[in-house]
């Protein structure tokens, strides 16, 4: 399977770190993911890159890399021989502010498709949505500056109404607004059919089990597949 993972060490070294078959699944939500082994040889320059940029949901906290939804999407892409290298740049505990600070390092090489999955930790912490909006916009602008031809896919998120119905509703609408403003491809809700389902989540009630990730992968694939189809 053609799947690479970016580690904290790899980001600071400006290099991609390859995932071995049994790395740590991720640190607790507030901590960065553990570093992987040394980088392997880079693929050919002509390879198209699909990069997943997110938090512990993307990183696959609590499951093996190949069980997380980016790994499952990579398997699908390989089986169809679509010619994409899939890069998992998920980092446990990441907020939109953290993503804004590291996206430039991640985009050392151009990408063809950039899947942006951030904001859930902002919402769970009750951070001002104006800041979340600014950070997401800065990430989008950086992607377009570094990889002008990239398709950007925004993964919509929802949060429980613990911080009030109004905040939760505004948080949900933020993704549609950002997608409309920037002409992005939108996944309306990344955790559709998984969020709130005990059987598909780990004991923390937040992170999907392998079965939950399979549902997420189907949701993501339904949006990605048309973007990855070979051009006639």
Summarize the structure.
The protein is an alpha/beta fold and 232 residues long.
Average pLDDT rating: 86
Q: What letter string, H or E per element, gives the SSE order?
A: EHEHHEHEHHEHEH
Strand content: 5-15%
Distance between the termini: 26 Å
Q: Spans with pLDDT under 50 lasting ≥5 residues?
A: 9-45
Compute the number of helices.
8
Largest sheet: 6 strands, parallel
Shape, per Cα inertia axes: globular
> What structural class results from the helix and strand content?
alpha/beta
How many DSSP E strands? 6
The percent of residues in helical segments reads 25-40%
Question: What this model shows, in words?
Answer:
The protein is an alpha/beta fold. The chain has helices at residues 8-12, 56-59, 69-80, 96-106, 120-124, 129-146, 165-182, 210-228; strands at residues 3-5, 48-54, 84-90, 113-117, 151-155, 185-187.
List the helices and strands and how they pair.
Elements: E1 3-5, H1 8-12, E2 48-54, H2 56-59, H3 69-80, E3 84-90, H4 96-106, E4 113-117, H5 120-124, H6 129-146, E5 151-155, H7 165-182, E6 185-187, H8 210-228
Helix pairs in contact: 3-8, 4-6, 6-7
């Amino acid at each position: 399977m053609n799947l690479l993972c970016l580690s904290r060490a790899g980001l600071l070294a400006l290099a991609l770190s390859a995932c071995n078959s049994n790395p740590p699944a991720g640190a607790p939500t507030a901590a960065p993911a553990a570093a992987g082994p040394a980088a392997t040889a880079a693929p050919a320059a002509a390879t198209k890159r699909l990069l997943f940029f997110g938090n512990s949901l993307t990183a696959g906290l609590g499951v093996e890399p190949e069980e997380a939804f980016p790994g499952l999407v990579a398997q699908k892409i390989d089986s169809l021989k679509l010619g994409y290298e899939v890069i998992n740049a998920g980092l446990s505990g990441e907020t939109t502010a953290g993503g804004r600070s590291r996206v430039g390092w991640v985009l050392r090489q151009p990408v063809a498709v950039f899947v942006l999955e951030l904001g859930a930790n902002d919402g769970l912490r009750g951070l001002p949505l104006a800041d979340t909006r600014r950070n997401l916009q800065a990430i989008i602008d950086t992607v377009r500056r570094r990889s002008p031809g990239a398709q950007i896919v925004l993964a919509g998120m929802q949060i429980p109404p613990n911080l009030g119905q109004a905040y939760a509703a505004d948080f949900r609408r933020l993704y549609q607004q950002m997608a409309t403003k920037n002409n992005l491809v939108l996944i309306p809700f990344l955790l559709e059919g998984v969020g709130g389902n005990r059987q598909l989540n780990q004991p923390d009630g937040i992170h999907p089990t392998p079965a939950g990730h399979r549902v997420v992968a189907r949701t993501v694939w339904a949006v990605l597949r048309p973007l990855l189809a070979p051009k006639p």
